[in-house]
Amino acid sequence: MLSRVADTIYWLGRYMERTQAMLQVIRIQYIASQDEPHYWGWLPLLYAFGDLSDEDIAKKAPHTPQVLYHLIFDRENGASVYHNIVRGRENARAVQDHITKEVWQSLNDYYHLIRRDDMAHLTLGEDPVSGLDALTQQSVLYVGTVQNTMPRDEGYLYLKLGKFLERALQTVDLLRINQHLFDQENVAHSPELRYLLYGLLGYELYVKTYQGQIDATSVLELVLYNSDFPHSLRYSLEQLLRYCERLKDKSRPESYEQLRFLIGKARTTVAYSTMHAQQPGALGQFLGQVRGELLDVTAALSNLYFGNG
């Protein structure tokens, strides 16, 4: 496969995973803003998913419709959901010979959905949850279409590498946004912990696994280490290693060994760590290390496989 094609498919995987993660977190935070009397605010998400100055963020944060517009529909915000979908569709258009027509159609439908005026009107005014659900359902449709129609060839491997690398980064960044929950004492039953689990689609598994109150150490254990939880850091890294190993016969030996080493290094950092809540500063240092190692993986893919070095 041409390195340009591999790069384009890899970024398609990243853009679409980022879209799904953003929509889920935004949806949950909107619900929290309506249900929690002491809602903690939109500031963290505006910093994570926006490109505004501190002054503009302070002006926009108190106004939920403005926040939703900026994070989802704003064509001037290079990090918005709209831009991720547009970039994903552009990438898919460039590699139509390497994806199925059904995958292309699902992305094209997604693009037209987010451009519809009635979708923005619903999400920003009438019923934000229903609007976010409609966008999320299209994201789920894309995922299912990939799973059921894509051949398990080289392109599929790059799509999966992009997906799970982005998922690992999103999990790290969401934990960093919520780092204060794990540095403090007496955060059991904190509504923020519950919404963090909802944002990662992990609340149901948490309740089934721990069968008790929500406490910071158990949440951290689930999100970092549970290999059965699809959004845990460990699961994403194990999937990255799995798809990397399937590239072995399609790679130059030295490129494969370097990429596998870097993914294995990040996986080992997570698997052999013992993070607990109430270790001031430790989680931030750990997440910074893992994020750096994930960025080393992205650089290796870019330099060794995509010829961008």
TrEMBL record:
Family matches, as InterPro entries: ATP-dep_Glu-Cys_Ligase-2, DUF403
Pfam families according to UniProt: Alpha-E
Coiled-coil region: none
Domain DUF403: 1-306
Designated name of the protein: Alpha-E domain-containing protein
